[in-house]
Amino acid sequence: MNSDYRDSGLVFPPNFIVGSATAAYQVEGAARDGGRTESIWDTFSHTPGKTWNGDTGDVADDHYYRLESDLDLMAELGLDAYRFSISWPRFQPGGQGPINPEGVSFYSRLVDGLLSRGIRPIATLYHWDLPQELEDEGGWPERDTAMWFAEYAELAATALGDRVHTWTTLNEPWCSAYLGYGSASHAPGRTSDADALAAVHHLNLAHGMAVPRIREAATNSPQVSATLNFHVIRGEDAEAKRRIDALANRAFTSPMLLGRYDDDFIADTSEVTDWSFVHAGDLATIHQPLDFLGVNYYSTVTVKMWDGVSERAMNDGHKDMGGSAWPGSRNVEFLPQAGPYTAMNWNIAPDGLEDLLVDLSERFPDLPLMITENGAAFDDEVTDGRVHDADRVDYLNRHFTAAHRAMQRGVNLQGYLVWSLLDNFEWGYGYSKRFGIVRVDYDTQERIVKDSGLWVSEVAKNKATPALN
Ligand code: GBH
């Protein structure tokens, strides 16, 4: 790469959206309140040994009860947009039947509070909190789950679609399918390669069934999208790269954006499943016009083929790679990568973001992109009531620089949402990892805007990155 991706004073277009993101189970708390029923993450996190320290989202950031002050905080930061997720079991307890007035009221107050502060609401319908009752009936490996999701999407768009303009169906279906049903590092913690692939298809189907229902129910000419986490794959071994690209990326982009499953993906997984769960017409249903694609990016992976079942791929201490997150391709090895690293041990690679954005815009030229998540966990310290998280500021500066370069190369990038507004429940890692641009003290629930929060605030207000000092 030609330079180190640290730049300053980069100017973004005046309508470029700079904001931040969270997800319901990671911030809301109030897990048993207001008519909410359990999700698979309640069950999973309350099962001993599943999360760090046995942490759960029972209280999290108490955001459900601190809505007004958290909204004021967002206004103070001058965010253009806030991406939140709707908790399905709070909105529609059990995932079937009537909506929950108290749940609807919470999201309604959230949306109204954002709009009155001039912040654009971006609503994600599914950020991993499947109602437990639907999991009891089989979860994502079952076709019915897609049907129930489409019902829920219509109800949500009916209730909020007069005010919410921007919708995302699914967040990172890769995680829901492979980590939830393959490697078991995420809820519901099942370990079946065949189920993981059935989940891939039914998540795709859920997306495709939901898109027209949202368009019909929302009265505000909605912008509809999906958010995918992309694997930016490095290494010299073309076969290993092809396999991981098929399983991780094209498993979702090909059906959603091109209306097909790629032959190599089907062939790679044929020892695991016969794909008989794909019915006639499904791919046409999944292939819906989208207004933009949400891109989540954190780091790269480096792979090569290994003539056996890779111990590293199965169990390298990286939870995402445990068990079988790679049905049909366990013989791909994930190699250690050059640092520097974040507190997740993910390598910091802004060039991966530039490459990803350019690659997507070349493959899907008419599809605008939005970075719906990018950010980093670091071991923050509080000194005199401040958090001087220079490492996170540097990470964000480098990644905004990468995005800026991609835009100069012609990428239609509409915005950049930093993960996350608040330190929060980091899934299997519990509260041990802090991604926030605002610190949360989990004893007092006090919020402290970190230096990175001030940095994002400046970028949002000025549409330019601040000069380096
Ligand atoms: C997102 O998941 C989630 O949407 C969000 O809820 C979560 O809090 C946030 O990111 C931080 O984890 O790990 O180097 O092999 C991201 C999960 C991280 C999974 C990157 C795939 C692949 C690269 N992804 N990982 S690496």
List the helices and strands and how they pair.
Blueprint: E1 17-21, H1 24-27, H2 40-45, H3 67-77, E2 81-85, H4 88-91, H5 101-116, E3 120-126, H6 132-136, H7 143-160, E4 166-171, H8 173-183, H9 193-217, E5 223-229, E6 232-234, H10 238-258, H11 263-268, H12 282-286, E7 292-296, E8 300-305, H13 311-314, E9 332-334, H14 350-363, E10 369-374, H15 390-408, E11 413-419, E12 438-440, E13 447-449, H16 451-462
Parallel strand pairs: 1-2, 1-11, 2-3, 3-4, 4-5, 5-7, 6-8, 7-10, 10-11
Antiparallel strand pairs: 8-9, 12-13
Helix pairs in contact: 3-5, 7-9, 8-9, 9-10, 14-15, 15-16
Bound molecules: ligand GBH.
Ligand GBH binds near residues 231, 298, 320, 419 and 426.
Summarize the structure.
The chain has about 475 residues and is of the alpha/beta class.
Description:
- It is a single chain.
- The chain has 469 residues and is an alpha/beta fold.
- It has one domain (17-462): Alpha-Beta Barrel (TIM Barrel), CATH 3.20.20.
- The protein is 39% helix and 14% strand.
- The chain is built from 16 helices and 13 strands.
- The chain has an eight-stranded parallel barrel, surrounded by seven helices. Strands 6-8-9 form a three-stranded mixed sheet.
- Helix 3 runs parallel beside helix 5 (101-116) and helix 15 (390-408) packs parallel to helix 16.
- Residues 315-322 have low confidence and may be disordered.
- Residues 23, 26, 171-172, 175, 229, 231, 296, 298-299, 301, 320, 346, 373, 419, 426, 435 line the site of ligand GBH.
